[in-house]
Amino acid sequence: MAEHLLFLTGRLAHARLTRILEGMAAGFTWEVVDIGVKVAALMTEEIIRRRLPAPVHADRVLLPGRFRGDLAALAAHYGVPFARGPEDVGDLPAFFGAAARAPDLSRYDVTIFAEIVDASALDLAAILARARAHRADGADVIDLGALPDTPLPQLEAAITALHGEGFRVSLDSADAGLLRRAALAGADFLLSLTEETLGLADGTAAVPVLIPATPGDLPSLLRAIDRRAAQALPFLADPVLDPIHFGFAASLGRYLELRRARPAAEILMGIGNLTELTDADTTGVTATLMGIASELAIRAVLVVQVSPHCHRAVAEADRARRMFFAAREAASLPVGFDSALLALHDRRPYAATAEEIAALAAMIGDANFRIETAADGIHIYNRALHAVATDPYALFPRLGVEADGAHAFYLGVETAKAEIAWRLGKRYAQDEPLGWGVAAPAPERDLSRHTLAGATLPTRRRKGGAG
User: How far apart are CA 128 and CA 165, in angstroms?
Assistant: First the structure.
């Protein structure tokens, strides 16, 4: 039997919600109840208990996404599950589509090496602090980078301390002496050895990351691989990704050639030569390289986040590996699984069309300003006006709030956010922070600031005004 859903809403959204549900090919039956408030997001637990009689004849009750009450308490009171829907009613079709698919993003098969490139310049406390931050972003292995011609006296102590906190550790150096010290101190990986230096790992548990003896020399890498494989010892192979205009395209070809030549080899790709050495937002670069890794079964990546524009590189690689794993398992394009890498643009930037906003504006009977965006710009409306512009400065003279500094400030903040979202093609929702995906973690949601004078309708009514 199909699930029967009860949607609770307010007067302004009732007609639109009903129209959307009627247009959906839903796999459930439904009923809409107007709970008696004008704006659906303003309903409270107390209002629901007072105006929704028990028992509820539904399998589930769906509330607006901005409802802030206790769902568990309502479920206990009525004996049926309560849940939040999307924040905008226009997102209901996508909401139910996403719920039906519910991708599992907990799984992945790529190990992230996060490099601390200046480990030789840091004391032990700083190394541990950096490692903890990388682990919080998704790193699996902490790679200690040794600066050229710089001693690393804290190497052994760092390896011991990192192991003590559960980290796996690698050393990245061209210094044979440092590499051997790291192997003897218990490093888990050595970056990077060639067929000529492979002996530095002998007699230890360190897994070598093998590279060509000279740049681009794939045959030498294959020889090193075969030597290690003949001993039945583990290794990772890295043909080395070169920067753009310095062999990038050819280096990509070497990864493909290596996979064809050694189908079972474990491969590592260092993606920092693209992210660090390209003036482009790293989310797209990371997504592309992680997509290549997914297709070629490259199960380890070395990530660097030194340049300011790369400060989220580890977290981006973590979200990318999860998304691509889920898409590959589903034999699907990597679309609709996770929006974390959509930092600057959204697939559905507008919750409503200009015509739908105009229809809603015509129903407003109070002075409280609502702000939305559509393809034609920023809409701000209340019972007295409905203005549209692409520049907040063009809106301000029509709002009549010059004498109310607090409210003018609030509207300035919100219309500025709306302009940023509109120009980038991002989703804007009044009173909500803009979403930047993994590029900038969302702040804690604190709507209490909107109870300050000048912001919300209920506060201004207590002060004797409106809107």
Answer: 9
Q: Which residues contact 177 (CB under 8 A, 6 or more apart)?
A: none
Mean pLDDT of 374-385: 96
Which are the contacts of 459, defined by CB distance < 8 A and separation ≥ 6? Answer: 451, 452, 453
d(CA 83, CA 26) in angstroms, rounded, equals 17
First to last CA, the chain: 46
- How many whole angstroms separate alpha carbon 271 and alpha carbon 290? 9
What Cα–Cα distance (Å) separates residue 51 from each residue in 34, 44, 63, 70, 75? 9, 11, 14, 16, 15
In the numeric block, the tokens 């150096």 are attached to 173
Task: State which amino acid sits at residue 295.
Answer: E
| Cα–Cα distance, 184 to 120 (Å, whole number) | 18
| pLDDT, tens digit (0-9, with 9 covering 90-100), for 45-57 | 999 999 999 999 9
What pLDDT score was predicted for residue 292?
Answer: 97
Contact present, 106 and 85 (Cβ < 8 Å): no
What would the DSSP string read from start to end of 104-127? --S----EEEEEETTGGGS-HHHH
Measured CA to CA, the distance from residue 139 to residue 207 in angstroms comes to 18
Which H helix or E strand runs over 394?
Answer: helix 392-395
Q: Which of 176-185, 233-242, 428-437 has the lowest mean pLDDT?
A: 428-437
DSSP, collapsed to helix, strand or coil, labels residue 28 as strand
Distance CA 35, CA 306 (A): 53
pLDDT value at position 40? 77
Task: Please give the Cα distance from 310 to 277 (Å, whole number).
Answer: 10
Hunting for tokens 């691509």 — which residue is that? 324
Q: Is the pTM of this model over 0.70?
A: yes
Cα separation, 44 vs 51, whole angstroms = 11
Which pLDDT band holds residue 467 (cuts at 50, 70, 90)?
very low
Residue 34 corresponds to which tokens in the numbers above? 């107007």
218-263 pLDDT, tens digit per residue, is 999 999 999 999 999 999 999 999 999 999 999 999 999 999 999 9
* Domains in the chain: ranges and CATH: 3-101 (3.40.50), 111-329 (3.20.20.20), 354-462 (no CATH)
- Reduce the DSSP state of residue 305 to 3 states and report it: coil
Distance CA 346, CA 338 (A): 12
Q: What is the gyration radius of the CA atoms in the chain, in angstroms?
A: 28
